[in-house]
Structures are given as structure tokens and as C-alpha cells.
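Posting this for the archive.
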Amino acid sequence: MLRSTLCLAVLSATFVVTLQAPFQSAQAKTPPISTNGEIHSFADLSERLLPSVVNIATKQKIGAMENMPDMPDFPPGSPFEDFFEEFMDRHRGSPEQAPSSLGSGFIIDAEKGYIVTNNHVIANSEEIHVILHDDQSVDAELVGTDEKTDIAVLKIDPKGLDLKAVPFGDSAVMRIGDWVLAIGNPFGLGGTVTAGIISARSRDIQAGPYDDFIQTDASINRGNSGGPMFNTNGEVIGINTAIYSPTGGSVGIGFAIPANLAKPVINQLLEYGRTRRGWLGVRIQSVSEEIAESLGLDNARGALVASISKDSPAEKAGFEAGDIILKFNGQKIEEMRDLPRIVAETLIDSKVDVEIWRDGKAKNLKVMIGELEKAEEEGKLDDVTPTVPQDAKTTEISNLGLTLGSITSSLREQFGYSDDLKGVFVAAVEPNSIADRQGLSTGDVILEVDQKDVSTPEQVEKIVKQLEKDKSRAALMLVDVQGQGSVRFVALKFPEKDGDKK
């Protein structure tokens, strides 16, 4: 699996690239290094950029006794008892160990001494040291971090230091095939420049909720984390963060956080010391072709609302489970993962227009954006209120591989259902069936079929038969996973029959 071989490029020296606050794109004064599209050399560009990249060393004090085993139990009076007590007493007073790690970084403001790196480079550190290009080592203080995008901002005292900054570029204009340079400290070897091209854009590597990575074949190894990725104008268009590697070394697949995603986060960390993201208050999922057809949408696009948080901006604005968000604040939502990023970048307390698809037609809503971090602190992200139907009985829908039953008091006790949860209990799922392939399992609770509340297995069966009669491709169901309040839409595609041209 991809996730099992994704490596964060820690153990790397950090180079500091200096940017001009407030991190607006700036045109490099040095002319491009290419003529008629031909790259002659990266030497001049590398010479100019290397002083802006820094190494970052961190230390974390750990008590020597922390990882020592407990003293074994010996019979009273045993000679080993005195021996081990003396041994343990001697090591309790030993000096603390200070593990260290290396990473990369770049200077964004030479006058104020601000440096950007990855959060995982400095996480859980008690001491942070920045090693400049001329080998000077200076202490750094942490300004702020963001785990969701893996970004951290540091500050050093610029007095007496010859710091050089680099500007951010516009990562949105970068194209697959464009040349890029990566600078960092792979394997602790020191300042290293590698070149390559952009191999892909908008990669989702399951690293966080706002994944939108730039993929490159420029050599990125352990230790490059936090280092900059440059375009041929010497502008930072990415922050090198992770690699895909079965061996731990570069295989030509590296990932960088796009500059356009990083800049708002960095500005918030500098202004507030933390992030302040927009919050809508919905749980969403992808829109498959079957779901789109079931809801009368022309093609699979947008973000499907599975559930809504209580007292959230979405609830107050009138959102409903089953809505498909097509546009948010004027921006099209092509894929589900576009929405979290766009909402997060929306100004808190601003009122925005949202276009949704409901009941077979487009509709507009207005929503006042909340603050994600405040909602997290108040526990609102875990407080989800799905639409809950009523009682249930028992039957079998063999063509979908489902056996359904009513929710009894014993089932509530066995599966931990709340007293007010009502729906159709999934008693069994046939292996390799349509329902099995869509991830349904025993203990799930079906709340809706074809956007209609269901309260008995007979109701589910009746709606499914009508959908088949109408030659629908799939039965759209709203399912409460294991009855624990985490709901999702599932489209169970009907088996094709002889003569069916669909």
C-alpha cells in the first residue's frame, strides 16, 4: 500500500530560504537560466539559492530511567535483590540523554529571521538549532505549527547574521513537465541540490485532510523534509515533505506541499501563532457515478453531505444529508477533497453562497462560516446528528446480498446502539456480494433508501424492487456505520440482467 511506504523525509539538514513578508509572489531579479526552452546549467541558480537554505537540528531530553525495565520480583532476602536495588539507584541519577534529528528549512524573512520547515521535523523538540549556510549554529524558537498541513514556522535572531531570503512563487501556474530544484540535507550529508521535473499535481497521499501535493522526480531523501522546491526563477513553489519508497531512499517519487497551500497557513502562524480555518460542519464523501444517477445529477462531481454537526454553520443554513455541494463561495467543487481546503481558506464570520443539488435540481444557500479550531475545542466535530427513522422487522434481499432485521433491545445492548437510534439492522452480508464489496457489514443500520426514511425491512425491499422496476442502476442508501453516528451514503449497484444495455 502507498501509505506503508510513504516516508517523511526526517534526518535532513534544513536550508533557510528567505521570503519577503507578507509572502506575496515576487519576480526574481536574476533572469531565467533557460534559452529557447533549453536548460544549460543550474549552477548560477544553485549558487544564488544555497545560502537561503538551512539545516535544522533538534534535541529532546529523555530521562535515562524512562525506558529501563522495572526491577524483577525476587524472594525476600535474595542476594539478587540487593544487587538490582544498587544498580537501579546508581542509574536513577545518571544524566539525561538528548536524542537529535536533522531536517531542512528555508528563510522567509531575512530582517525578522523567520524560517519555514515541516512540523514533523521539530515535533516534540525541547531545543531547536538552525545551521546556516556558513556553518553558524543559532538557537531558534518555535512561532507556531500546523499538524494538518505539516508546516512549522521558526524564528532566529537576525542580528549580525547575513541572511538571504527567497520569494514564494505561484504553484498554481506550475505544469507537469516543468523543471524544479530541490535543496536540502539528505542523510545529513550537507547542502545538496537536485533537479527534476514536476511529475504530477494534486496528489492525495492520505497524509492529512488538505492533501494537494506536487509530485516530482527530483531526488528527495530522508533529511530533505522542510526544504524548498524552486522553480527556474528561484521562487519557492513547494515544501519538500515526503517520499514514496520501499527502501527508504529516493526512487524518483517525492512530494511537496504547494506554495499556495502553505502561504495562508504561514501567514496565520505568524499573525496568531496558530491556524484559524473556516468551518462548515458537514461530513462528506465522494460522489460516484451510481450516486450521481440516483440523485439525478448529470455526472459524478461535487461533495455529498453524509451528515451535519449539531449547532454548526451548515445546520443553521439549512443543509441536509443527501445534498451535493457543487459550488462554494464561487468555486466549483469537482471532487470531494476540494471542499475541505476551500472551506478552510474562507474567512471566518464571512457569509458565502453555496450551490447544492437537492431533489433533482440546483439550489442556493447562504452560510456564515465558523472557526474550525474553536469547533474542535468545543467537541462539535464529534457531535453528529443523522436523520433517524423508526422501527424494523426481518427479511432478505438476496440480489444485493443483504439480510435485514429489526433493532431489538438485545441488539441495542450487544452493539451499543443509543436508545433513540431507529432503522433497519443489517443482520448479515453475503461474502463477495454487492453489499459486501461496498463495505457493508453486520451491525450497520440503514437509515434511508433512495432518500426515503425506512423503518422496516419490508420498506427497504419495496423501495429496492421499485428502483429495479424503474431500471435504476443502483439503490442509494444512507447507512449508520455500526450504529455509532458515523453515517455515509452507499450506492448498491443492481446486477445486470440479460438484455440490459446499461
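The first helix runs from residue 43 to 49. The chain has three domains: 1-26+41-61+98-272, 278-382, 395-493.
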